[in-house]
Specification:
The complex is a heterodimer of chains A (about 140) and B (about 300). By secondary structure, chain A is of the alpha+beta class. Chain A has two domains: about 1-30; about 35-130, no CATH class. Chain A is built from three helices and seven strands. Chain A has helices at about 1-25, 35-45, 120-130, and strands at about 50-55, 65-70, 75-80, 80-85, 95, 100-105, 110-115. In chain A, the strands form two sheets. A four-stranded antiparallel β-sheet of chain A has the order 1-2-3-4, with helices on both faces. A three-stranded antiparallel β-sheet of chain A has the order 5-6-7, with helices on one face. In chain A, a hairpin with a 7-residue loop joins strand 6 and strand 7. The longest helix of chain A has 23 residues, at about 1-25. Chain A starts with a helix and ends in a 6-residue tail after the last helix. By secondary structure, chain B is mainly alpha-helical. In chain B, about 55% of the residues lie in helices and about 0% in strands. In chain B, helix 1 runs parallel beside helix 7, helix 3 (about 75-100) crosses helix 4 (about 100-110) and helix 3 crosses helix 7 (about 150-165). The longest helix of chain B is centred in the first third of the chain and has 34 residues, at about 35-65. The termini of chain B are far apart. The relative contact order of chain B is 0.13. Classes of the chains: A alpha+beta (about 140), B mainly alpha (about 300). At the A-B interface, helix 1, helix 2 and strand 4 of A face helix 1, helix 2 and helix 13 of B.
């Protein structure tokens, strides 16, 4: 039993040590969306068949909203050094505050995202309203 | 102290992760992300702990099967070799069912939920594989006459082999090796979410099983691989990582009409009675139907 506890503690030290080293070595980094083309490519990769016709990037490049021809809207947001996407099902959970649009997908683990969309925030809030309520 | 092959190999795992991190620092800093690494390694530790917790139960079931064995196979060298090959064959089917049956996927998804592909991803193992009863697929080996201790040992060696193939640092092995063995290239395909790569290359050690059963897919050098799962987690929460698919499956079963409830357990992941989500087959079919215009992102 003592040997197993020692083994467990040594494993925990090794695990947190490696994660600390990864941070210390500067691995990962501060990833941002370069441009709309990159956001579109990521959206296509996230959902096969989703072909963006309109895209808006958060000013800091940490998130984007994309719309396809059929009016579906995808939220793309940074997750570590990658991006995770969700197709939005309704406008509920979207709040507009001047240039800032906050979107909650309804998934607690995914969290809410606030996008600084500048002058296009209003336009995208309207697009989101077209999605309607929860179905 | 437990001294199975995997425990003995653990110090080498740590050293190799460290070596790959040094490689990443020089060549590709985004190959690692500290929170992702922490998540993967803690999943690995949790997997070892749950494995220890249920080791007695698994051993009892395997020994019960061995008690009704058809023959007694000793500990000769050829028996070890035969057991290794047959265990790898069983692993192929365990792994394939892990992707094609949602019950098993709920456990195996943990290994795929990182958007990274590095040696720490190899250690990102499920906490619930024993509960999912994956090990039952190995029972025939005991019934045939291989001793459960031998089966456990070769399964451990199989797992150790699979560690080094979780890397982007190695592009290709020699052609003969790629033809027979599972390699980093083959297994990158397995971890990809690109439509043409979904549910391919289930092999553990020998890629020949995929070639035999029609699930082999070669890696294309000009295609950027996106790793992870079709619906990326978007979270570094450890408990969510461990249990999200079990929770999702339970919700689906709860909400489904009675006649569809079981289908959410045994059918392919992504299946819904109303067609509101995609299975990997549906994604691949859609991708094939819109070629060459969609779904491929060339390497930057």
């Amino acid at each position: 039993m003592t040997a197993q506890v020692v083994q467990l503690l040594a494993s925990l030290v090794a695990i947190f040590g490696l994660a600390w080293l990864a941070k210390r070595m500067g691995l990962g980094g501060d990833v941002r969306l370069r441009d709309e083309d990159e956001a579109k490519a990521l959206a296509r990769a996230a959902s096969c068949g989703f072909e963006p016709v309109d895209t808006v990037l958060d000013r800091a490049g940490i998130a984007a909203l994309l719309r396809d021809e059929s009016g579906r809207i995808m939220l793309l947001r940074r997750h570590g050094v990658h991006f995770a996407a969700r197709l939005l099902a309704s406008h509920e959970g979207a709040r507009l505050d001047r240039n800032f649009l906050t979107i909650s997908t309804g998934e607690r683990s995914f969290g809410a995202v606030t996008l600084d969309l500048g002058g296009r925030a209003q336009e995208w809030a309207v697009a989101l309203r077209r999605l309607g309520g929860v179905t | 102290m437990k001294l199975d092959p995997v425990t003995l190999a653990t110090p080498f795992f740590i050293l190799l992760v460290l070596a790959e991190m040094v490689w990443a620092r020089r060549r590709k800093a985004q190959a690692y992300e500290p929170r992702d690494t922490l998540n993967s390694l803690l999943m690995g530790l949790g997997s070892v702990l749950t494995g220890m917790l249920f080791a007695g139960t698994v051993a009892a079931v395997m020994l019960a099967a061995y008690d009704v064995r058809l023959a007694t196979i000793g500990l000769q060298w050829w028996a070890w070799s035969a057991c290794f090959v047959l265990d790898d064959f069983a692993y192929y089917w365990i792994h394939r069912s892990g992707h094609r049956v949602r019950w098993f996927w709920a456990s195996h998804v943990n290994h795929h939920s990182s958007q990274h592909y590095n040696l720490s991803t190899a250690l990102r193992q499920s906490w619930t594989s024993v509960i999912a009863l994956n090990f039952l697929i190995r029972l025939p080996l005991a019934v045939v006459g291989f001793h459960p201790a031998m089966i456990a040992a070769v399964a451990g060696v199989n797992l150790i082999y699979q560690f080094w193939i979780h890397t982007e640092a190695i592009r290709r092995m020699p052609r003969w090796f790629e033809a027979v063995m599972n390699t980093p290239s083959h297994h990158r395909v397995h971890h990809a979410t690109n439509p043409q790569y979904l549910d391919r290359n289930y092999a553990g050690v020998f890629i020949v099983w995929d070639r035999m059963f029609g699930t082999f897919q070669r890696e294309h050098d000009d295609l950027r691989i996106h790793y992870g799962i079709v619906k990326q987690l978007g979270s570094f929460n450890l408990l969510w990582t461990a249990f999200h698919e079990w929770i999702g499956m339970a919700r689906d079963v709860w909400n489904a009409p009675w006649r569809h409830k079981l289908s959410y357990i045994w059918r392919v992941p992504g299946w819904t009675h109303d067609g509101s989500r995609d299975t990997s087959d549906m994604i691949r079919t859609r991708w094939q139907s819109c070629q060459p215009d969609c779904g491929t992102s060339p390497k930057p």
